[in-house]
Task: structure prediction
Amino acid sequence: MIRQGELPKTWKGQAFAIDGNTIAGIGLKPQIRLWGIQVAELRDRQTGRETAPGMQARAALTDLLEVADHRVSCRATTWDSDCRLVALCTIIAEMPTGSQPAPHDLALRLLEDGMAYGFQLEKAPPWDESASARYTHYETIARQAHKGLWPQWLEEK
Result:
């Protein structure tokens, strides 16, 4: 069994998208998988080639990170089987002069935009018991509106 060490409570820093639900933090050894979502795979398992839906999901996450100059604040929930931290991560988006910066939950925004769907939502983080319900709500709205990747996932032409 691989021992992953003590779970860090939080991490703040600059991060970049690896794929649509994984980020790499500057100065942080493990990658971070965003809690509560699954996205289209970046690479086809058989050919190893990047997929269009996977690239769209990664681009959506990249765009969100760029709004905040890649500044991220994450709160860890657990380790996953790939030795990544699983965490709820937010960005602080810059607002017009005189306004307070608004935090944005990265995974929730991807759900809202139809670039992700809920994943392993049965156990919400102890500090945010409503996270699972909130994520399900935004996924449902995006699915019904056929936003983002939902037409492909629903196999609509």
Remarks:
- The mean pLDDT is 90.
- The longest strand covers residues 10-19.
